[in-house]
């Protein structure tokens, strides 16, 4: 089984100007079902978690103002989204989905959230289309509630640095944050992850994959995690209009294969979230994301 969190609200509460990149949340499940990579039984509908689970990583005042739509104009502009009740519901549902994925991955080895990877959300503010940090909340939930998980590794391979995640866990030794990202890309001001690997513009398959192969196995040996969160953004593609890296679709697939094969070999449960993807053609986004699921299906099913 390949547990996959999906809810139609992942796409629909957003303003028209944001709809194109969000189409992947509708098209990706359709593609996975059509080709047989996933079945209807693999999908589950996530639900918002108790407030206490959100507050493991978010400031109570910020969370309440977000719920009530009381962010300042400056705070709202930083998120990139105009506030709405539907948007709030979307964000807490995504977060709840990643927590549920973490529970399911402990049993199945892997689980996916079709959305998620909201790594620019800090404890008390949102940025870059991220209002609540789903992987951070799920990691904190595991450490608080699951005795089998004493150390978490977050592997963030989105093209943008996971600045919010790095800041949230800056003083938490039980969570190791690893971000491999475009050096000159958003955010302009980077935070400090436990390991940052900034890449020059135009980095393509060979140097990217070589660096990942030289780094991740060593990290697993040194960090010795009990659980992995993987942010598998496809904004590393050469076709991406915001990414400035130059991976081919096959190179992106090989990246996923490296990460997921290592997790499988080390018997590490892993939750995968989709992260960013902004190629001009929606097929490039959907196919690159679908490859992540195809790789996991070949390994874990």
UniProtKB/TrEMBL annotation:
Ranges that cross the membrane: none
Keywords: Hydrolase
Domain Histone deacetylase residue range list: 23-283
Keyword flag Lipoprotein: no
Keyword match Hydrolase: yes
CDD domains, per database record: HDAC_classIV (cd09993)
Organism superkingdom: Bacteria
A Pfam family of this chain: Hist_deacetyl
InterPro entries: HDAC_classIV (IPR044150), HDACs (IPR000286), His_deacetylse_dom (IPR023801), His_deacetylse_dom_sf (IPR037138), Ureohydrolase_dom_sf (IPR023696)
Sequence similarity: Belongs to the histone deacetylase family.
Protein name per Swiss-Prot or TrEMBL: Histone deacetylase
Record lineage: Bacteria, Pseudomonadati, Bacteroidota, Cytophagia, Cytophagales
